[in-house]
Amino acid sequence: MTGGETFNTAGPHSFVGVQAGIVRDSTIYVVGPDDPPERHFQVGVKYLEHGVPDKARSHIETALSRGHDSPEVRFHLVLAMLSKRSFRDLNRQNRTTLSGLSHQLDSTADDEWNEALNVVFMVLACVDGSEGDPDAAIARLRELPETQRELVMRHLSLVLTGSMKQGIWTKYRDTAYRNRTADGRVNRVWVYFEPDPAQPRAQTPRPKSTTGWDILGAILLTAATLHPLFLLLRAALSHGTMMALLACLTTVVFVPAAGWHVARWNHQRQRIIAAMEEQESRFSRASPPEGGFTDHVERAFDHYFAKYAPDPENRTAWLEETKGVRRALRDEVARIYRESDVRSGQVNWLIRFMVRDVRRRWCEGTPLRPAEIYGLEAMTKVRCIALSLCAAMGSVFVIGSAFPEAPVSTVACLLLLGLVSRFSVPLWLRLHSEQRRYVEEWREREVTLRGREEEYERWWNKLAALMPTEAEMEKWLEADKTLILNQALRHYRLEWHEVIAHAFLPTPDRPCKSTRVKGGPWRFSKYEIRIFLVTNEGVRESSADLDFEGADWHSSERYNYRFDALSSVQVEISNEHRYTLNITLTNGPTKSLVVSEAPQSPARHEEQPEAAAQINLEAAGFPHTLRILEGIAAEGKPWFDRVSEADPPAAA
């Protein structure tokens, strides 16, 4: 293949049909019934950090009710109530709780958590009708220690609006720029979606085709052979000449030696024949069913053999030369893993290792074809032929010496030897070849398995060293959303004081890879990030396709519509795993957005499907987005202008 040609091959992560997600076992969200309240608080903080505020609020409230109280606990509880919500999203119970917490503030305590809690309530006083001072609140926010300031800015991003948002937007945006590629994101995100590698295995040798009856028959035939041979040698020695003695010695020495070399030659030949027959049968078989385990393994081998070609300029020759090897390796992997609970992606590490091993042998000039692998060395063949000639010459002289002494006995012994050898020689050759094959294959298996175990250990350690935490995944996604929002603001030339409200709607951009930690939300390798910006003139909708692994995105769609153009909003729940948002405009067709669709995952990992779906919806910020869209569809702009008199302010 020349350098100007393009080579395409389906990769091991090509998507066919419905994709199965990866669910990782983890104890980070596990709380036992006898665990102390501190454990509930720790899990609540984890949930908040990982983007699931409702679960965080539940655990922190439990810790608080069991006596674990401090400014830090109350601060995180308030953040859990406000994260991914605007103030308008709070119900009466939420506002009552916030009001109670605001009355418990200790204005004299010199504690960074207490100060941060004070700042949060100063911000709330600016949006709850208490006529707080936005400038003073933002000034106090900027003076907070970095840890507390970052937490407030992140979790109150939907509460901070208008001039307050404008006052900290530059800092917020700069933090997003910094976090977007922080902690080696581009080199680590892929690990999160990498399935746990399957335990190394190696093919078990095929059982011997010979039985104990074959061995017994060979022994009996050998005994039947030795008696006439003994008679021939005795008759030859009775001739009494030195030539007869030398002939007998030559026969006794060279016949066993020649037999051993013939057996070895036959063994190598049998292995070549078996390998060639197996190779021919592989090419004659039909292709495996599309989308199955064997099909994935075959596509993975094709992909990696193309990727790891020793010379990209001659990739076609390499692929043609290794066609038989690819099929053999494919069949081996499919055979040793197919009847287990191993999923296709879990053997990619082994496939890569096997392909690299083939490339190494190719570069070193090590044989790859069966005829080359099992071929006998030239010197061994020469030695076998020489020994056979010596044995034949000795046998001829023995017969020549024995015949004059006992012609009838000699002829009878020769006939008996010929008859018995007709059965004993093939039987002994088969017994020898099978025993030798079995021993060689076990030895090869041990060497192969040891190499795979070392590669498995190396790969597992690499994944463990690079695996991102849930907090890092959420931080990177939050940074991407912020920068996509910044791009939308710049495109529409909007300042924050012109934005009444905004909402995100991140959905998976399928086909994509998906993974979740048990108890946590699904995360995807590709997203469609949809942003709704509500201004006095109407709604600006912008979407971007996000390659989360590559930390890159591009704008895909933009829509502008007046408040009265949005006629209805409906959530369609197809099943426990799929939620679809249907948005209908007065002058256009209904737009359907799949908000949550949990990938298939092994049943043993599943929590309650409804609870898992709620975690995914909450992590996506769907309740806030739905509330805004429903408010626009029901009332239009007046919905944003009014403040419910029935809801008390959050802070006194």
What does this structure look like?
The chain is of the alpha+beta class and 652 residues long. It has three domains: 22-182, Serine Threonine Protein Phosphatase 5, Tetratricopeptide repeat (Alpha Horseshoe), CATH 1.25.40; 217-465, no CATH class; 469-641, no CATH class. It contains 22 helices and ten strands. It has helices at 37-49, 53-65, 71-82, 92-103, 112-125, 134-143, 146-155, 162-180, 185-192, 212-237, 242-284, 293-307, 315-321, 323-337, 348-364, 370-373, 378-405, 407-466, 470-492, 609-619, 622-635, 638-641; strands spanning 22-24, 499-508, 514-517, 523-524, 526-535, 539-547, 552-561, 566-573, 578-585, 590-597. The chain has a four-stranded antiparallel sheet. Strand 9 (578-585) and strand 10 form a beta hairpin. Helix 1 runs antiparallel to helix 2, helix 6 (134-143) packs parallel to helix 8 (162-180) and helix 12 (293-307) packs antiparallel against helix 14 (323-337). The protein starts with 21 loop residues before the first strand and ends in an 11-residue tail after the last helix.
